[in-house]
Amino acid sequence: MIRTHRTVGSLLIRTALPSEAADIAELHARARATYYPDGLPEDGFDWPAGWRSAIERPDAHVLCAVRDGRLVGIASFRTAEAAPTDSVTLFQFHVDPGNWRMGIGADLHAACLEQWRTDGKRTATLHVHVDNERAQAFYARQGWTREREPEADEHHVTLHLAVTGE
C-alpha cells in the first residue's frame, strides 16, 4: 500500500479501493482503445474482476489519480513471479484520454517511483503495445529505455528503468 496519499495541486494520488474496480476497468478500456485502430478487441476477460483482484492482492499496488472527485489515472505494479525481489513490473499505467497532456501521467509516474524507492526496488520493467507510440514517447521522457527492437510478429516492446535515488 502507498505509505501516504500524495497531493499535487488538485490531483490526489492514492491506493485504489476494491469498490472502484468497475470504474478503473472503464478507464482502462478507454485508454486501450486509443491504440487499436480497428477498435478494442473483445478478449472475453472480466476486467472489473481482474482489477478487483489486483487491488486486493497483498503483494501488489494499484494507485489511482483523482481530480475533482473523478478517476483520471491508474497504475498497477508488483514484483513478477520468479523475478528478483528488488525489481518491479509496471503492469498497467493509464490516464483517461480526455485528461492527456495535463501532467497527470508524470505525477502518477512520480508517485510510482516514490513507492518503488520506499519498497527498495532497483529496477522496473514494463511492456507497452508496439503501436502505442504516444505511450512509448511518454516513457522515454520518464527515463525508460528499450530492451531491444521488437521482432516483426511481437505485439509489445519491453522497457526498463533504473530506480535510483531522487
Summarize the structure.
The protein has helices spanning 21-33, 47-56, 104-118, 133-141; strands at 6-8, 11-15, 60-67, 70-78, 87-95, 123-129, 145-146, 156-162.
Overview of the molecule:
Helix 3 (104-118) links the parallel strand 5 (87-95) and strand 6. The radius of gyration is 15 Å and the shape is globular. The protein is built from 4 helices and 8 strands, in the order E-E-H-H-E-E-E-H-E-H-E-E. With 166 residues, the chain is of the alpha+beta class. Strands 1-2-3-4-5-6-8-7 form an 8-stranded mixed sheet, sandwiched between helices. Helix 1 (21-33) crosses helix 2.
Strand content: 25-35%
Helix content: 25-40%
Counted beta strands:
8
Main sheet specs: 8 strands, mixed
Low-confidence stretches: none
Biggest sheet strand order reads 1-2-3-4-5-6-8-7
Task: State the order of secondary-structure elements, H for helix, E for strand.
Answer: EEHHEEEHEHEE
| Rg estimate, integer Å | 15 Å
Oligomer: single chain
Mean pLDDT equals 88
Strands, helices and their partners?
Elements: E1 6-8, E2 11-15, H1 21-33, H2 47-56, E3 60-67, E4 70-78, E5 87-95, H3 104-118, E6 123-129, H4 133-141, E7 145-146, E8 156-162
Parallel strand pairs: 5-6
Antiparallel strand pairs: 1-2, 2-3, 3-4, 4-5, 6-8, 7-8
Any key phrases for this structure?
single chain, 166 residues, alpha+beta, eight-stranded mixed beta sheet, 28% helix
